[in-house]
């Protein structure tokens, strides 16, 4: 599956199949949240949150690809991520794009 942030794929004519998305609400356990709170006082990267968001993006992307595969897509174009804090230590990540088939 080709995933592109641009709206075209060079050398390919595309047939639009529709919007596809994958989402997840993801959180770390309380112990890591406490460690992250101390890290925020000292400054620097909060690795547990970086890890959390990387894992969440991977899962959201996988779910988006699975939805595109159900439509028979060859690629996803215009792919984007969106995120929102749901509560302290939890975030919703959405991966979305347009599923397309090559002509």
TrEMBL record:
<dbReference type="Pfam" id="PF01906">
    <property type="entry name" value="YbjQ_1"/>
</dbReference>
<dbReference type="InterPro" id="IPR035439">
    <property type="entry name" value="UPF0145_dom_sf"/>
</dbReference>
<dbReference type="InterPro" id="IPR002765">
    <property type="entry name" value="UPF0145_YbjQ-like"/>
</dbReference>
<protein>
    <recommendedName>
        <fullName>UPF0145 protein KDW03_08550</fullName>
    </recommendedName>
</protein>
<comment type="similarity">
    <text>Belongs to the UPF0145 family.</text>
</comment>
């Amino acid at each position: 599956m080709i995933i592109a942030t641009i709206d075209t794929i060079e050398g390919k004519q595309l047939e639009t199949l529709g919007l596809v998305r994958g989402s997840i609400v993801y959180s770390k356990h309380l112990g890591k949240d406490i460690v992250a709170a101390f890290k925020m006082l000292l400054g620097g990267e909060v690795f547990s949150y970086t890890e959390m968001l990387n894992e969440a993006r991977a899962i959201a992307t996988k779910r988006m690809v699975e939805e595109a595969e159900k439509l028979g897509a060859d690629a996803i174009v215009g792919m984007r991520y969106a995120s929102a804090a749901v509560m302290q230590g939890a975030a919703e990540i959405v991966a979305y794009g347009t599923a397309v088939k090559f002509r």
